[in-house]
Amino acid sequence: MNFRIDSLKHKNPGDTLFKILKDAPYNVLSERPYKRYQGKVIRNIIIGQVNVFNRVSDDIQQSRNSIQKLQHLLDFLHVNTQSNVIREGLFFSEKKDTVSAYLMAYNAYYLRHLPFLQTAEIYIQPLTDTKDSVDVIIITQDAFEFGASIAHSNLRLYNVNFLGGGQRIDLAVSLDKNRSPKIGTAASYVKYNIGGSFVDASIGYTTINNAAPIDTGVYETSFFVHLDRQLYKPTVRWGGGLTISYNYSMDVYSRSSGYYRNYAYRYFDVWGAWAFNVKKLLKTGFENSTRKAISLRYSILDFTRQPHQDIYRLDPNYNNRQYIIGQYNLFQQRYFKTRYVFEFGRIEDIPSGYNLALTAGVEKWINRKRIYTGAQYERSKIYTKGNFMVTGIGLGGFFKNGIEDIVFAVDNIYYSELYTLTTWRLRYQIGLNYLIGINPHFNKAINLNTERGIIGYNSELLQGYQRLTLGGEADFYAPFRFLGFRFNFFTVAQVAQLGDKGELLFGNRLYSVLGTGIRIKNESLVFRTLEIGAYFYPGAPSDMKKVGLTLKSIPNIRFRTTPIQRPEFISFE
């Protein structure tokens, strides 16, 4: 590709991307690199695309001959993202728009979070022949579009950017000789940012029980359609989503009529949000501007067939549920650029700001109508050395002849600054979580088997309505890579307590874990991060082992793109 910019002429776009990434400032607010160009006219928008496995300097030196040939072959098989797909994802246009530092920062964040790009940068090139105009260069690098996974008896194949069109195709098959039918299948299609509307749409079906069934010990077929539009930038006024599905149970293991739960249900969920003071934001600027938004959600779960067993007749999982909830948000958000939080060295955008959400609604469940109110506050604070803290607190509950299903939750995670140890990188985190349920009616007892419990716990003996977890993790990022794979060596320690809702939690027994392991990831590929871990559980309950070895894939973890999400009840789990 021939750039029309003097500083980029005759250069490999991959070298340019590498230089921009290497020189990109981090531990700074995301808008800072663009501020000196604020208000300048955008003359041209130039898109430069880099091959998936484009490597420079030290990587090329260690990746010659057969490995390089393999990378060239994979690049040949891959179809780069179409330039119009990138253009449809821009918040500005050439000739008529001017540079807004905050919109540029939000746009770079949006592009980096597209699931088919491994990285993206927006770079502003000043012009020598005029001082009031600039060229904007968008440089992107795709992730390799093909992927596969094998889990138990399931084989899954997927393409995250089919034909370079910003669309995803998933196919899966399950072969299990113990079930009937022996073969199960699943397929789905996703189109991102339809026609530049920033609406994502998906449609699909599954007969392999991977669409979040309503209960444990059941097997479901599901057909679904989903639409979603986030409030993806500060100046957008509306967002929302729609989910429709039809689901029914399958007796794949030929259970007797006394054990098989024969049911079917329809699910409909729609929500919308409206942001205020957008015009004021455009006039006064984005810095330190408090924003307001309201959102409304309607959801219904309608059973067309219920299990015939008496034990499930009044079980909340198998009864109709309908609710409508509204939310008012008061929030402020900017982004902070850093590295080595969840990823293995590429730029990450950390939200900085706060969100106050006030929620109210009405729910009807098992012919029981009740009112809900709740309040949540979240704050992300960035410190001068690049360390930051994310804090959340929430209180919510229902009213029906008194208060019931009250939930109080506190989350706090501190992320240290990034330390350099010779050529290694170190960042540690310390987290605290507290959860209590008061006057439970539908809420069931919690345990330690969740993300907010203890890593690797799998015990049904420990239950309660109050939980406290304290933990820490240190992540050591290796300076070397092998065949493009990067390595994070981690150590972790956690302690937790469970108790009943009416007792003093600190008098209960401590449960703990000590662990170490390694996480492996190739950021050019769309595969999940591979984690290998060894854990020791002193004082573990009798229904689980004291030593655990794990080999699992973990999903990519990222902070939320916007504080305005689909209104939810504060969960108790």
From TrEMBL:
Superkingdom, natural source: Bacteria
Protein known as: Bacterial surface antigen (D15) domain-containing protein
